[in-house]
Amino acid sequence: MKEIIVIIGGGIAGLEAASQLLKLGYSPIIVEKGPSLGGHVAKWNRLFPDMTPAADIVSGLVESTKEANIFLNTEISFINRLRDNYNVKLSNGVSISTKYILFTTGFRLFEAEKKEEYGYGVYDHVLTNGDLEHWFNTEDDRRISERDIKSVGFVHCVGSRDEKARNSQCSKVCCITAIKQAIEMKEKFPDAEIWCFYMDLRLFGKKFEDFYTKAQRDYGIHFVRGRVSEVSEDINSRVIVKAEDTLAGKPIRLTLDLLVLMSGMVCNPDCTKTAGMLSLPLDSDGFLKSSDNVLHITSSPKSGIFYAGACTGPKTVPETLAEARSAVLEIHSHITGK
């Protein structure tokens, strides 16, 4: 009989893990609370730094998991330990007995309305990185479609590296996402002036620095080191931004057609709810706590429970996929005793 592994979350980590488990001869079961697979990546348009269409990545992963058992629109109602097995009760009434559970529950974007000073939900032409990706995919957003765009601003680190927001960690991908989106907006509106306001640029990944250089050299995107201190709106519903250029040592006041807030990653609250059923600990950043953060980041402190992807902290797409593969190898080692 094939070993059953329950995967909680149908984003790219869950899909990649299921794909690899199928290749090893196991029976993965994906439990996804939403109506479709792919998670946040499925909502993105293109991926940095090569501008790869996100849909291509997701469709390939979905195709590779077509032999897996997949429950959509389904949540975890209850989990308990019965001797050597976990009893997993699903919201659709199905119960599963398994020795192995893989959390691939991902993250959610910081709720930008909590940073009231930026005016999200108050001013007509303030949106988030998630909103902008939706527009790239659908071109359906009155905040963008209804006006001729001549100037756009991006605010980095919204809800990240922010003690007041109770989220002190760096979200890792906001800087490079802002650069990607700034380039995309310049492609959409070639005559527009594009501004990025940052504390410091954290561009650690392969080709990320090249991408940043390209944004300045080939697209003329302006980068201003300094926090936005005030956002308001004029009589024409244009956004007025006040900031300080800390490199030039002078204040800046800009009037923009759009202001995009780069909401950071925070732990998915559904993840912490499910983790609580198993008394799994949270780390100081609010994400799930691995056995350690060097050798065993895909292992939990509980036997048979594993992690992959952004449930343990902010991750890029390549890191997420790599962790999914690593978690599968750990599970395989436990099963085979090798």
Write a structural description.
There is one protein chain. The chain has helices at residues 12-23, 54-64, 129-138, 142-145, 174-188, 208-217, 269-277, 317-336, and strands at residues 4-8, 27-31, 46-47, 52-53, 69-71, 76-82, 85-90, 95-98, 100-103, 107-109, 126-128, 151-158, 193-198, 222-225, 228-233, 239-245, 250-256, 258-263, 265-267, 305-307. It has two domains: 4-106 and 268-336, FAD/NAD(P)-binding domain (3-Layer(bba) Sandwich); 112-264, FAD/NAD(P)-binding domain (3-Layer(bba) Sandwich). The chain is elongated and about 65 Å long. Helix 1 (12-23) runs parallel beside helix 2 (54-64), helix 1 packs parallel to helix 8 and helix 3 (129-138) packs parallel to helix 5. It has eight helices and 20 strands. Helices cover 27% and strands 28% of the residues. The chain is an alpha/beta fold. The longest helix is centred in the last third of the chain and has 20 residues, at 317-336.
